[in-house]
Amino acid sequence: MFVAQWVMVELGQNERRARDRARAQPHLPRDRRNGDMTTTELDDVSTDDDRVSGTGTIGSGRGLALLLVITGALGLLAAWVITLDKIELLKDPNYKPACSLNPIISCGNIMQSKQAEVFGFPNPVAGLVAFGAVIAIGMALLAGARFRRWYWIGLNVGTLLGTVFCMWLMSQSLYVINSLCLWCTLTWLITILMFWYTTVHNLKHGIIPAPDGLRRAVLEFHWVVPVLWYGVIALLILTKWWTYWSSLI
């Protein structure tokens, strides 16, 4: 939730910068000013990195680049911790991970399930690679890198697949394994942010074709989807183990 709040603050600052620049350029048509005059500026309008260049490449502003770096780093941390705990479990089946706090919040139960090795090896190993790649992309964007449309589509598809996989793992965790892993939950949340704000960026620049009304609505109310998504996840967790949670009150 901290990352989502930071994104909203960043967008508010971007909006103010866009309005200030618009006032300084009253002679220019609206479509030539630096960015749309809405609360939806995901990219930092203080630079031109997010504009389409003559070579057809597209960059991003500071907001999206930092989001990818921060969420990628959190995902890498989660994958690293889970990997270390998995190694300890292989050495000693009686090992209890630090995040196994009670019968419900039990990382050990998750790690020892068959769902923890969907591809024939521990899932966090794939996370180490995927989140490392996201960090690299975010750092490249911060340094001014620009990518072609197919690259942005590839990033969008990759984050979509990651999100679908995380949602499947969430359903398995809640309704099959009947345990919750805090590091896994962190992974679900950050993957949602990666996917959604990459989608917002691609809609903004026409990389994903969409009606103008839909594009403007997504840009104006970009925060609604992750907030609702997080709310649904919280409700599922609360209702699944409501008896246990209520006993703690």
Automatic annotation (TrEMBL):
<keyword id="KW-1015">Disulfide bond</keyword>
<comment type="similarity">
    <text>Belongs to the VKOR family.</text>
</comment>
<feature type="transmembrane region" description="Helical">
    <location>
        <begin position="125"/>
        <end position="143"/>
    </location>
</feature>
<feature type="transmembrane region" description="Helical">
    <location>
        <begin position="218"/>
        <end position="238"/>
    </location>
</feature>
<protein>
    <submittedName>
        <fullName>Membrane protein</fullName>
    </submittedName>
</protein>
<dbReference type="InterPro" id="IPR038354">
    <property type="entry name" value="VKOR_sf"/>
</dbReference>
<feature type="region of interest" description="Disordered">
    <location>
        <begin position="17"/>
        <end position="53"/>
    </location>
</feature>
<dbReference type="GO" id="GO:0048038">
    <property type="term" value="F:quinone binding"/>
</dbReference>
<keyword id="KW-0812">Transmembrane</keyword>
<dbReference type="InterPro" id="IPR041714">
    <property type="entry name" value="VKOR_Actinobacteria"/>
</dbReference>
<feature type="transmembrane region" description="Helical">
    <location>
        <begin position="64"/>
        <end position="83"/>
    </location>
</feature>
<feature type="domain" description="Vitamin K epoxide reductase">
    <location>
        <begin position="61"/>
        <end position="202"/>
    </location>
</feature>
<dbReference type="Pfam" id="PF07884">
    <property type="entry name" value="VKOR"/>
</dbReference>
<keyword id="KW-0874">Quinone</keyword>
<dbReference type="InterPro" id="IPR012932">
    <property type="entry name" value="VKOR"/>
</dbReference>
<keyword id="KW-0560">Oxidoreductase</keyword>
<feature type="transmembrane region" description="Helical">
    <location>
        <begin position="150"/>
        <end position="170"/>
    </location>
</feature>
<keyword id="KW-0472">Membrane</keyword>
<keyword id="KW-1133">Transmembrane helix</keyword>
<dbReference type="GO" id="GO:0016020">
    <property type="term" value="C:membrane"/>
</dbReference>
<feature type="compositionally biased region" description="Basic and acidic residues">
    <location>
        <begin position="17"/>
        <end position="35"/>
    </location>
</feature>
<dbReference type="GO" id="GO:0016491">
    <property type="term" value="F:oxidoreductase activity"/>
</dbReference>
<feature type="transmembrane region" description="Helical">
    <location>
        <begin position="176"/>
        <end position="197"/>
    </location>
</feature>
<keyword id="KW-0676">Redox-active center</keyword>
